[in-house]
Design goal:
Helix content: 10-25%
Structural class: alpha+beta
Radius of gyration: 28 Å
Order of helices and strands: HHEEEEEEE
Number of strands: 7
CATH class of one domain: Mainly Beta
Strand content: 35-45%
Length: about 150
Amino acid sequence: MGLTELIFSWQGAVVAVFLLTWLVIYFLLMRPRRARARRADSRYYNRYQSRFKGWMLLNGKRRAIRGVDLNNSGALITSPVPLAPGDGVFLFIASERLMGWADVRHCVSRRIFGYNVGVEFRGPLMRATEGAWQFQQYRTTDMQSN
């Protein structure tokens, strides 16, 4: 019996299926997984998992937000609408009674659940006090005289 006859006979097919099955089992289940190197957290301040609710003011429209984490220099919030990096927003964190201006650093889609938005505070957040507040943002532009 030659090698060609052995390979193409039913015994060769059984051996081939046996080897293929064990190769699949090894590569899918038994092979140790390599741990991916996690990127080091380069934030200056510690990040705290802090769930909070509030709202943001963007282009005169008030939108509800939920907070994921918070630190002294920024926050990660979920928003129903996408925001462009560089947009200035006014944040009000209802549960902590804090408010202040922030700039959008990044915006990532969460598929049907909205967007994760990273914001960086322009300064320390202020304690909210009672009263009617109206906010406006002015952008300054450099005008060159000719």
